[in-house]
Amino acid sequence: MNKSIIARNISKKYKLYKKSSERILDLITPKSYGEEFWALRDVSFQAEKGDVIGFIGINGSGKSTLSNIVAGIVPETNGTVELNGQAALIAVSSGLKNDLTGRQNIELKCLMLGFSKKQIEEMEDDIIEFAELEQFIDQPVKSYSSGMKSRLGFAISVSVDPDILIIDEALSVGDKAFAEKSLAKMKEFKEQGKTMIFVSHSIGQMKQFCEKILWLEYGMVKEFGNVEEVLPKYEAFIDNFKKMSKVEKEAYRKEALENHDVFI
Ligand SMILES: Nc1ncnc2c1ncn2[C@@H]1O[C@H](COP(=O)(O)OP(=O)(O)OP(=O)(O)O)[C@@H](O)[C@H]1O
To answer: What range(s) does the ABC transporter domain occupy (predicted)?
Structure first.
């Protein structure tokens, strides 16, 4: 099979609560509390092995929710995701345990991924070196800056050699030198024919890296296609969107949602 990701009709419902007591009542009583919010609506896309796909869209359009669902970290409400191979997600907040040290986090994450103690010992030094955390690796992660956390998350995820690598804004924090090193690693992965999903607000990075673009808008697929085709349309949209007033933006949002078919 040449497909590495098949996402079919993914929808994600969150509940928004005004008070924390509503959240508890919603769990323990038959009555429904809170307001339903659909972060993703009927999203389908497929990736071939070796595809590098960029997720773009304005803030809140559902990019992180979708990447978390593809990575198996957040459950979908409706729809299915089929993966051919193991996926690893790198995000600024990617599952590091704050009370554990950097080293303990490496060990925990690798154990969870099925590596043996001996394999982990062999990988550990490379991870620490790649993350540039030699001095700090035995400190608790809660004392790390967001750049340090991101470096550690990136180093762990690439060292486990996943078939599908999902990178969510992880290159936007930290210094330029590390971003360049990470981009070089991603190029290496690309040459090895691994599938990558790249979430970023940087149109420059999208151009540099991605072959295909999935443009999300209010949780829906606006466009999915080749980068040369979709990115110029997105750039034009963003220019326009930035100029809209609050009222115009709200009217645009309402129209986009109304034009979408009922999906549940
Ligand atoms: N755990 C949650 N509970 C409730 N709502 C959520 C939750 N996570 C995300 N959302 C909402 O879902 C929508 C999509 O969020 P998501 O983070 O996926 O968007 P995004 O495109 O990645 O945004 P950004 O570019 O700002 O990172 C947003 O309106 C967000 O507020």
So the answer is: 22-243
Partners of 162 in beta bridges: none
Of all protein residues, the one whose alpha carbon is nearest to atom 27 of ligand 1 is 59
Phi, psi of 224 (to 5 degrees): -140, 120
- Left if phi > 0, otherwise alpha if psi is -120 to 50, otherwise beta: which for 79? left
Structural domain contains residue 223: yes
Q: pTM for the whole thing?
A: 0.86
Which stretches does DSSP call E strand in the chain? 3-16, 35-48, 52-56, 78-83, 87-91, 164-168, 195-199, 212-217, 220-226
Q: Could you give the number of structural domains in the chain?
A: 1
Helix or strand or coil: residue 50? coil
Mutate to test the pocket of ligand 1, among 41, 63, 167, 214 (most ligand atoms within 8 A of CB): 63
Residue 111 per-residue DSSP state? H
Q: How confident is the model at residue 178 (pLDDT cuts 50, 70, 90)?
A: confident
Given a contact cutoff of 8 angstroms between Cβ atoms, the answer to whether 74 and 40 are in contact is: no
